[in-house]
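ARCHIVE CARD
SHELF: 3
SLOT: left
DATA:
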Amino acid sequence: MPLDESPAPFRHWMLREIYEQPATLAATLNRYVEADAFRPDACASIFQWLKQIQTEIVIAASGSSRHAGLVAELLIEDLSGISVDVEYASEYSYQPEGSIKMAAVMVISQSGETVDTLAALRKANSAGLETLAITNVVHSTMDREALVSFPTLAGSERAIPATKSFTAQLLNLYLISLMSASVRGTMDDAELEVRCAEIAALPAGIEAQLEGWEDAVRRIVDLNRSATSFIFLGRGIHYPIALEGALKLKESAYIHAEGYPSGELKHGPNALVADGTPLIMIATVNTSDPDSLQRYEGVVRLMRDMRAQGATIIAIANTGDVTVPSLATHVIFVEETREVLMAIEEAILLQLFAYWVAVDHGVDVDNPRNLTKAVLAE
């Protein structure tokens, strides 16, 4: 059977596509970055779009793409100071004409055909707004109708749960946040060179860790197969990754899961913490970043309280961390790097978790019930 008709040597397309991510991230990076700078031929229209922004950016997206948009909100605001508002595409498209913000509009969609997001794009176009589309399908409707297109290069995705398309979106959105900083003069060339070098090392870093992550995930899944619900927790940029981890588990394995900011657990959701409801806590840190350290310390304090409460804690922590392993029930390690890059790694790790829980529950993970690759009708 031809390779493109089979996920071989992997058991499912979803697992194959998880393992393809080092290559797909490298392909996206090579398309837009050369050495330590952005490729003018590929990025000129994106720079021009950013220069036209007068007030803010509205991001309209659904599902996993919206979670990527939440990451972009934090990155763009932090690096450039441009205000960003993330909307559910299904809500944006129904806003009264008079309430539409006079802002640049970015739509994000794997297929470029998602009905709600396409409606949001058309509403923005009809209002005369500057629009940009991030899709994984060149020549899709959004790719054609947006003023500017900034496609990912994840390649065809056969499994319904988004994996490589999601991390490609995260990479594109990090790149656009760096471009926005360059346009606004909030990042100098030396810092940009450092960050480009870090990104260039990301695919190899993921490749080196993938099998270890999978082995650790399989052990943890085996020890927690009786769990009926999971709560995913993260702070800052890791909160959208917690949301994505919960969504991936729900759609892949039919297991109830919720994602929250770590600091919100005690504001109600803690009532759900009991036997059969493990906490998945993202506890990574960039030790050279004071803000990251502060977030990490908050996560550790919460972890201490949850351990005293008797919770089962599955933690994602940095290699070499000794504090988190002393508090968590199970730990999966990722190498320390800049937080946005660790967020991409965490997303892949949580994709593996959803995959193996699904397999353990006998789910057809490539074709989960009631779902389609692209939502083409309301």
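SLOT: right
DATA:
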Amino acid sequence: MKILVTGATGKVGSRLSKRLAKRGAQVRALVRDLSKAAELRDAGVELAKGDLLEVATLEAAVRGVDAIVHCAAFFRGATPEQAHAVNDTGTQHLAAAARAANVKRFVFTSTGLVYGGTHGKHANEEHPCTPSAAYPVSKLAAERFLLAQEGLDVRVLRLPFVYGDGDPHIAEAIGFMREFPPDLRMSLGHHADIAQAVERVLDASSPTHRIYNVVDDEAPDLRTVFASVGAPPPDGSKAEVAKAFDTLMDGRRIREDLGFKAIYPRLADAVAANVA
């Protein structure tokens, strides 16, 4: 299988590209800056220079691929306009190129934040989506656009907070979440398990569903998440702000349908294996 991965120099895309290549897939990475992709080239990944907002660069990038795994996104620091441009409009550009090239499968990595706050309850894929922040609003718009396309086999993976493999994501998020309640629970997913979910969706000839939550077995509280990187617990002074991120995900569908089983079911397992 020949796979195009977008966002291949980002946190999820870079690790996923290397895992897919190591597994034996022919991987092509869409990158805006070739100078930042030396590690991908060294891992046997083909590089294609392009940008989701520059339509003319996408035709060559999608040519000859069997599947696209679309990880590129603008998250922290994006204005609502920037989030919409990259995450929604950019996805529409890529989907148009994929349809024109007769790409067989289009895997879109979305976010569990599309559910909005779930108030301590686990949301399955049929749960109403009521996001408020610009990032999940733009991702939900992209989901809906993709799922309405005819002639494009779209599968959506809604991801939790992703960590592991030397990714400083938890440490980087401490500042943002420092004033959240310490007992707020967070759905997590290790990079190895995100890659496993992508592989299972790519390998299945006809997955039963079009949307899958991907999540570890345990959702630790922020006190535990902060402690995993040696940080004191958050102080809870902005509990109202935190409600928009109080999102727990139910991962039973991908387990039952595609046989997904978390390699690192709990944050504690990844910490014990020194891969957190």
